[in-house]
Design brief:
The complex is a heterodimer. Chain A is α/β, with parallel strands linked by helices. Chain A contains nine helices and 15 strands. Chain A has two domains: 241 residues, Aldolase class I (TIM Barrel, Alpha-Beta Barrel); 66 residues, no CATH class. In chain A, the strands form three sheets. An eight-stranded parallel barrel of chain A has the order 1-2-3-4-5-6-7-14, surrounded by six helices. A three-stranded antiparallel beta sheet of chain A has the order 8-9-10, with no helix packed on it. By secondary structure, chain B is an alpha+beta fold. Chain B is globular, with a radius of gyration of 19 Å. The chains are: A alpha/beta, B alpha+beta. The interface between A and B is medium-sized, with 37 and 32 residues.
């Protein structure tokens, strides 16, 4: 039985060094993925092989923590092998759970490894009680990662009507509002987060200087143009700046990072089990900084103290250098 | 031993003052030391796509060429015209060293435009992720070059870095209306300079000894 203070802190690791950093900084659970298209952060040089996962699991278990494996992309027709192998390898390495989105993979995991916990990925976009109940009854999921479209009140209502644990995003990049269904990147590059595990693949990204401006491009498409000293954003299509009626603006998503640290008591009261920190593609410096800050806050809240100031120091590593509560306090419908 | 950030003031001043051949030999020695202590890093670098990355320091008049993929990774000082490369990474010495040691988040530096990339972005992403797998201490690597004197060297360098940082802070404070006594500053600067000369001379001796040893080994 793990000793969870206040809320379970679920943290990202793109490398074994980041996993150790997350555990040492106080993560309760670390999630990671394999070096292929089976996970939604399939970037060059990132992720784990079987040996690294086995060592990471041993490191975490020796300290009473969990390692869970994201196998959260959707298999391509006629090419199921990598996804089945990923589930088998996660089980063999002693992972504590797998995070899955595809119903075929959920079915495979349930039949082949019935004792391996199954978490429903945010990529499944399950955001109502009927949907979540279907996954629980049919595939025996223990936890759902809720899409980033719900307000805190909606999260509370949903949790009161479902019989599995709820995990919500608390920090990191904010994606498009229909999780797991984004094909914007595919239109430009032919590759998508849903099947290839990459949004805006790095080999399609380039930057060029144009006088005092810097342009970011994805393939042949200019996704943004920054004035000198203006903060930059990820070159993803959902965060591109579009010109309409001669006015350049962010129509889909602003380049800001989610930070829900100020509403952790509300999330706890809503019945949330776990907080997810986004960012397996980020460095171990990011992991260390975010996990340390959240650990301090969670421990303080568990002791009944007020929130420590350390939590306020994260804006510098948030996307675009700005933070938001996003849909959790959206104020719009 | 605790991981300590590479002493940036000393590094910047030495890179500004040392002749190019010495910097070139230092870079090669550092790569040799890292290859010994981080074999996985070099194995992973060799597995990447062949890349020629030009590293352009924005606060020093130096450019380096880092080559990796297929062949063993090398770091050379660029002399003359820009070399043929797939990608250029620009940033201050402090930012780039912090990145190398995993002390700072590269995306955050990208958001604030403290580093810029032109060319093959995927090569830099792959390099960043490969470096981030390793826990590198440049100070430890540099001090390893001193052999048995590494402990003394480490303490000396960190003491000088501390003094240089205090001196820098005082110079910054001098711009304030209540500036300190200029004579004190001059004395401290003179003392620091003398110690740097001593360090240079010791390093030169170590280099000669190392070369002799290599000659004997060969």
């Amino acid at each position: 039985m793990r000793d969870i203070a206040y809320l379970e802190l679920v943290c990202p690791a793109g490398t074994p060094a980041a996993l150790r950093t997350a555990i040492d900084a106080g993560a309760d659970t670390v999630y990671c993925g394999f070096r292929d298209c089976t996970n939604a952060r399939n970037y060059p040089g990132l992720n784990f092989d079987a040996k690294e996962l086995r060592e990471g699991v041993a490191y975490a278990h020796a300290r009473g923590r969990w390692v869970i494996v994201a196998i959260n992309t959707f298999p391509r027709a006629g090419d199921i092998g990598p996804w089945h192998r990923a589930i088998d390898t996660a089980a063999e390495c002693g992972a504590d759970a797998v995070i899955l989105a595809d119903i075929g993979l959920l079915d495979y995991a349930m039949r082949k490894h019935p004792n391996l916990r199954r978490h429903l990925s945010v990529q499944a976009a399950a955001s109502n009680p009927l949907s979540i109940d279907f996954y629980r009854e049919t595939f025996g999921i223990s936890r759902v990662v809720l899409p980033r479209v719900l307000e805190v009140d909606e999260v509370a209502t949903l949790i009161s009507r479902m019989k599995v644990e709820a995990e919500v995003f608390a920090f990191g990049s904010v994606g498009t509002m229909v999780e797991g269904r984004c094909t914007l990147s595919s239109y430009i590059t032919g590759r998508s987060p849903s099947s290839d595990g990459v949004c805006a693949p790095a080999e399609f990204v380039h930057y060029r200087e144009d006088g005092a401006f810097m342009e970011s491009c994805l393939g042949d498409v200019v996704t943004n143009r920054y004035a000198k000293n203006e903060n930059a954003a990820y070159p993803t299509p959902c965060k591109c700046r579009l010109v309409t009626n001669d006015n350049a603006s962010y129509l889909f998503e602003e380049p800001v990072g989610l930070n829900a640290v100020s509403i952790l008591p509300q999330l706890k009261a809503a019945g949330v089990t776990a907080l997810k920190i986004e960012g397996r593609q980020r460095s171990r410096a990011y992991v260390g900084q975010v996990v340390t800050a959240f650990r301090a806050v969670l421990d303080a809240l568990a002791r009944g103290e007020t929130m420590p100031q350390a939590a306020a120091d994260l804006h510098a590593i948030a996307e675009g250098g700005r933070e938001t509560l996003s849909a959790l306090k959206k104020g719009w419908k | 031993m605790d991981k300590v950030a590479f002493p940036i003031i000393i590094a910047r001043n030495m890179l500004a003052a040392l002749p190019k051949p010495v910097i070139e030999r230092g870079a090669a020695a550092l790569m040799r030391s890292m290859r010994r202590h981080h074999p996985d890093l070099f194995r992973n670098l060799a597995a990447l796509q062949p890349t020629r990355l030009q590293v352009e320091l924005t606060d020093l008049p130096h450019r380096f060429l880092l080559s990796f993929g297929e062949k063993p990774a090398t770091l050379t000082l660029v002399r003359g015209d820009a070399p043929a490369c797939n990608v250029t990474l620009k940033g201050s010495l402090e930012s780039l060293l912090a990145l190398l040691e995993g002390r700072i988040d590269s995306d955050a530096l990208f958001f604030t435009r403290d580093i810029t990339i032109t060319g093959d972005t995927s090569a830099v992403v792959a390099l960043r992720n490969t470096l981030d797998r390793e826990e590198i201490s440049l100070l430890d690597e540099a001090m390893a070059l001193l052999g048995p004197l590494r402990g003394v060297g480490r303490r000396t360098v960190l003491r000088w870095e501390g003094r240089a940082a205090r001196l820098r802070d005082r110079i910054i404070a001098m711009r304030a209306p209540d500036a300190p006594d200029e004579h004190d500053l001059a004395a401290e600067f003179g003392s620091l300079r003398a110690e740097i000369e001593t360090l240079k001379s010791r390093l030169a001796k170590q280099e000669i000894l190392a070369r002799r040893k290599q000659g004997v080994a060969a």
